Amino acid sequence: MKRFMNDPKNFVTEVLAGVAAANPNTLRHVPEYNLIVRADAPVSGKVAIIQGSGSGHEPAHVMNVGRGMLDVACPGDVFAAPPLDYVSEAIRRVATDRGVLLLVNNYTGDRMVFEMAQEVAEADGITAELLFIDDDVAVENSTFTIGRRGVAGNFFVIKAVGAAAESGKELAEVKAIGERVNANVRSLGVALTACTPPAKGAPLFELGAGEIEFGVGIHGEPGRRREALRPARELIREMVDTIVADKPFERGSRVAVMINGLGATPISELYLLYGHAAECLVEAGITIDKSYVGNYCTALDMAGASVSVLELDDEISALLDAPAVAAVPAV
Amino acid sequence: MKRFMNDPKNFVTEVLAGVAAANPNTLRHVPEYNLIVRADAPVSGKVAIIQGSGSGHEPAHVMNVGRGMLDVACPGDVFAAPPLDYVSEAIRRVATDRGVLLLVNNYTGDRMVFEMAQEVAEADGITAELLFIDDDVAVENSTFTIGRRGVAGNFFVIKAVGAAAESGKELAEVKAIGERVNANVRSLGVALTACTPPAKGAPLFELGAGEIEFGVGIHGEPGRRREALRPARELIREMVDTIVADKPFERGSRVAVMINGLGATPISELYLLYGHAAECLVEAGITIDKSYVGNYCTALDMAGASVSVLELDDEISALLDAPAVAAVPAV
Hints:
2 copies of one chain form a homodimer.
Chain A: H1 11-22, E1 27-30, E2 35-38, E3 48-55, E4 72-78, H2 84-94, E5 100-105, H3 108-123, E6 128-133, H4 154-166, H5 171-184, E7 185-191, E8 211-214, E9 225-228, H6 232-246, E10 254-261, H7 267-283, E11 287-294, E12 304-311, H8 314-321
Parallel strand pairs in A: 3-4, 3-5, 5-6, 10-11
Antiparallel strand pairs in A: 1-2, 2-4, 7-8, 7-12, 8-9, 10-12
């Protein structure tokens, strides 16, 4: 394992310090609790949006903090849920009298911590709602999950509820929007290589020279099957077809499409996949209104990609278009 | 080699098709000449900005096309200069009576083609100026270069001349701004792994299990030395010190800093590097006004990163802040 790091046990803290240093006007790092917080939090008159998860999925979620996005991200160590007291501190730092919405990808460890954190918050007099994200169609139950896993579709939930909160909507409305986005999005990922947690120093699983994991999870969880790498056009067709059949997405529907890199995939390949995915959707009579290509929810240094398709309506579409500020921009 | 692709000989064309498909309102793909063109080009009353280079450096340069950036990108095959007739066609498609500025990273093959293309343009009655970018401090001459190589500092030149052209400045002024940005920027890269061109199918060079290439080029060219991987904090200190001493950047200067991923490096590690780079610059009495962290100029699937530091003045700073549209945004 060759990585840009120092002592692996300081990896997450040093990454967060860098995120805050690169965004001095908009973000703050709270090293005692591993938090990245909006510099202007708590934002009065606004529902606060909080996401916690294991680290290793960057830019999710520490680089999704900012106006129109999250108020705070509360990462745990690599691929580990954050401790309860860290989550409770995150909530206290951003809570307003409009309440807080806790976004949780559907992993058993994360659910457990956030359900307890909700109780602590309520005991503190803070109104807190939970929203679970489970967009991965690959498998029903998984290594760390009962039900479906939450993966890159998470980004759309953050963007929509972040914009809704910014516009002054009530907690119940914001949560309902998030639930609708989650219900409308489906994702599926493929790994070309395993990933290596810094503290472990060895790959989480083994893939042969020509093998891929179809339906991989963002912690390296097994997918539907291990198989030989195929041409990108064939691979993406099965991914899109699986997603379309699962929801199902009907002819005439309008969607947002995301090709998400899993950490070590060149952006050129992501765009190549995008082109093929778009062809498949157009053939299925589905209209692409919005496109996202890049790294949104990664698995450390895994080479691989996922496809997400989100059914749009006018409200969700407007929320995705709303201005937002996250970590340093591309241009 | 496991990659998301089909026949390697179609790789570049299929990537470009994906770029255009993901940006239907702003970009056009011209497959006969491998071009990505602004949908509204030629933009009358504006100096046109053109960049050509080998492919494999994405987002440079095909994802840097748009308002306030490039009018057209003319990529060659992977790590190969574009053919002359492709460059000439690119120029014809975007040229206006305000003239065109040709941005060329300093590699012998690219220089040769663009110098010929300038002559062809002038014969066509188009006023064309050349601007060579050579920000890499690692080595003086290199495998494909006489003088210094052009690497990620290229982004700052594109952004500044793109904004200057958009604001209506004359060709001579736009070129002078680009030359000042190039003179003000220094970069240095490190490879943790080699990269594998799709058509070759094998790594361009070999690095041992614990080895890095200090000063690597974006085509895998050798740097200053091969050595053992060190903790990130030590490594980045030498990179920043080398850059600061080269220009030199003086105490009290204001800079933009970029940590650029070379293709397969997780963004978490780039932010970790950013944090350390910022510490070193602050210690040197240098003020960081702007921060860029992400993939700006890559080397296919190389794991590695480069640091760029750009001295700012009020004009360059305003040009970097000017609105711009490139390929699909992160939020």
